[in-house]
């Protein structure tokens, strides 16, 4: 017969290992062995919050397999980018279309910006522009993007 202490120890060990494995899947830091498929954003609707002096600015982000569109005002003021995966967990955004007047001085068609994935979990995707310090976060909102209703 197996002693009760050994059974209890085994149960605690298995439970702890299960929790650790589950937690690793919920929140991970990309490593050298992680492939682009593990770093890619799932398609859908995200929200990016940018802190400002007098509050914050919410950017609505639509992600597909090929494109990332950042909307300041949905379907009116936005920037559409092509997503090109370069290496494991590194990608570039190539500007394809700009309708947001506040970005016309700082962005242009064909502009390439390089990013590296910093952290991933089920509902948050953090990435950083290469050679910059600021971390950008996208919070997953759901599968469907709320396009403006045109009457």
TrEMBL record:
Q: Recite the UniProt keywords alphabetically.
A: Signal
N-terminal signal peptide: 1-23
Q: What is this protein called?
A: Uncharacterized protein
């Amino acid at each position: 017969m197996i002693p009760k202490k050994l059974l209890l120890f085994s149960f605690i060990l298995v439970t702890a290992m299960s929790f650790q494995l589950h937690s690793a899947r919920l929140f991970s830091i990309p490593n050298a062995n992680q492939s682009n498929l593990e770093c890619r954003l799932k398609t859908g609707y995200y929200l990016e919050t940018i802190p400002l002096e007098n509050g914050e600015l919410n950017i609505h982000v639509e992600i597909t397999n090929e494109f990332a569109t950042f909307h300041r005002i949905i379907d009116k003021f936005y920037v559409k980018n092509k997503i090109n995966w370069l290496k494991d967990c590194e990608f570039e955004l190539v500007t394809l279309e700009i309708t947001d007047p506040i970005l016309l001085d700082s962005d242009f068609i064909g502009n390439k910006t390089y990013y590296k994935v910093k952290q991933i979990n089920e509902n948050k995707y953090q990435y950083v522009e290469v050679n910059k310090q600021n971390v950008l976060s996208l919070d997953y909102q759901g599968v469907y993007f709320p396009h403006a209703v045109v009457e």
